Amino acid sequence: MAARILHVVTNVAHYDDPAHPTGLWLSELAHAWEVFEQHGFEQAPVSPNGGPVPLEPRSLKFPNYDRVARAWHGDPARMALLESTLRPDQIDASEFDAIYFTGGHATMYDFPDSDGLQRITRELWEQGGVVSSVCHGYCGLLNVRLSDGNLLVEGKHLTGFAWREEVLAGVDELVPFNAEEEMKERGALYEKARLPFVSYAVTDGRLVTGQNPGSAKETAQKVAALL
Questions:
Q1: Of 3, 38, 58, 219, which cross-links 227 as Cys (Cβ 3.0–4.6 Å)?
Q2: HSE of 49, CA atoms in CB hemisphere, 13 A
Q3: For position 1, what pLDDT does the model report?
């Protein structure tokens, strides 16, 4: 049986200010999908509300719009997957071996408090599956509590988009919170690379996290190695 991966994507299209669009950071999905596809894994996308997934405009520009992202964007069948994503209540966690939270600033709005995503993540973790995220995808792990009441991230080594990277990206005044600090407040052992925007991924047992868009491939490779 091929391993099955559940990709989590966002439904949100803009920051609090509608004049500033956001959405899924396409390369973070595309690069991981390619890695998992090369391993013969089965894959499916889910979003907090199901249905269509907007794309972050900045992810469709150089240097983020690379060969892999362009190939996805230019494939009608792949793009159709982002028009009809599943809802969490349609997902049986026992049918998956890993969950992978993609990023984009949009995830800061609909990932943290999604009861459905938390349920899937908790069940998958407790059945021995791999939980992973890249960039802002780690916002989906902020509030996941296990059956014993403890936060999944407490005491775990992990990474995700750094506050310094928010500042350098010029969105520090747009984002709804400081994800790096929120993770630390929950007892996570947050790590980051010495330089911003370079690939950096952390494995702590069955938890695999990547820091930024450039970390998607490395993160997926680490997930594949565990599977």
A1: 3
A2: 12
A3: 84
Distance CA 192, CA 189 (A): 10
Region class of 104: left (phi > 0), else alpha (psi between -120 and 50), else beta: left
**Three-state DSSP state, 101:** strand
Q: What is the pLDDT of residues 61-83, one digit of tens each?
A: 988 999 999 999 999 999 999 99
- Per residue in 10-27, pLDDT (tens digit) is 999 999 999 999 999 999
Question: Which domain does 161 fall in, by range?
Answer: 4-226
Contacting residues for 77 by C-beta, under 8 A, at least 6 apart: none
Report yes or no: 211 and 141 within 8 Å, Cβ to Cβ. no
Between β-strands 130-134 and 98-101, what pairing exists: parallel, antiparallel or unpaired?
A: parallel
Q: What is the CATH number of the domain that holds 48?
A: 3.40.50.880
